Amino acid sequence: MxxxxxxxxxxxxxxxxxxxxxxxxxxxxxxxxVLRRLEIDSTSKVASRALYRGVRDIEHRLEDAEHAASRLxxxxxxxxxxxxxxxxxxxxxxxxxxxxxxxxxxxxxxxxGTRLVALLKRVQATGREEDLxxxxxxxARRIVRLRAVPFAESDGVAGAVGxxxxxxxxxxxxxxxxDFLVNAGHEMKTPLGALAVLAETIADTEDPATRRRLSERxxxxxxxxxQVVDDILTLADIESLETPFAPLDxxxxxxxxxxRIAPAARAARVEIQIGGTDADVIVEGNREQVVSAVANLLxxxxxxxNEIDGALVTVVMTPDGDEIAVAVRxxxxxxxxxxxxxxxxxxxxVDRGRSRGTGGTGLGLSIVKNVAETHGxxxxxxxxMAEGSTFTMRLPIARG
Length: 400
Description:
By secondary structure, the chain is α+β, with helices and mostly antiparallel strands. It has helices at 2-40, 45-77, 97-103, 108-126, 168-204, 208-238, 250-267, 287-303, 352-358, 364-374; strands at 82-86, 92-95, 130-137, 141-153, 156-166, 246-249, 270-276, 282-285, 311-320, 323-329, 378-384, 388-396. It folds into 4 domains: 1-78; 80-166, PAS domain (Beta-Lactamase), CATH 3.30.450.20; 169-242, Signal transduction histidine kinase, dimerisation/phosphotransfer (DHp) domain (Helix Hairpins); 243-400, Histidine kinase-like ATPase, C-terminal domain (Heat Shock Protein 90, 2-Layer Sandwich), CATH 3.30.565. Helix content is 55%, strand content 22%. The protein is elongated and about 105 Å long. The two termini are 38 Å apart. The mean pLDDT is 77.
């Protein structure tokens, strides 16, 4: 889609340049014609009136040309794609703000700017368009695409137009999609393999006690696979553009999430307490998604508190300006600092062995992050080893 947008912008720019060139050549011809008429019939009133009309017509055409150029400049100034126009001498005649930052930048931007100028000169010399991708490392790795296209007039190449497009987000999304498919396949393959082995073992044993034990294990693995599928479908639903939003009472959603997790909390001997505002706080959102996000935060808090005697998990709702902050605090094992930046990635686990033991899919925090962002909010975390963690989801409060 980005390539299509780039091509469309290219065609529009080239068409505008050609149109302006044709219009200015026509205006020049009209001026010369008027001047010739002035020299021939300088004493004629008819010629004077014709001269006046001709000059006024030229003025109107010049205004139209200036408006067209202004609209073209306004369009290119507002795009996040860098646009550069070089004249027939190879000098930069125009650069929109995005391209200007690159041409005048340092380090990686300077490299991209130098390569773009060289590309513009080369396509003017060859008359053939070119494009290339560059990897920049300043300070984070970025991928940019450079493209240069010559444009010609009747007397030869008149200049070239260049484009700079940042592909970093596109490449990152492609990598995440690829990793997601690989991880999803791996996560589903593990319980499927266990199911096959357990089924074969049950078929080969006659001992009732062994059969019951293996049947229970079979049920656990089946539930695990079902949970992975459910979480994948939940993510797909969150990312859908057709998600219905409606006024939602945050306190009611938090209460429903607590009810969902209550049986697991009782089994783990973990107490859940709720606090914060008593007022009804309304957001525009999807109830099922918000409940799912809070339930995932509670589920994580319970799972990572169950080794603590008398463990306590608290949920606090606090209005903060135009947002409502829902903070879930546990007093568990904490998160190592070098894992904080990655815990919201899909299928990422701090401790894979512990996650398998607790039945986690590695998608819970990713669901929370997607729900928050889909609702125009955010999620953050603070944690200290052996002290516990606090996850805070912020959602914008509905106006009125």
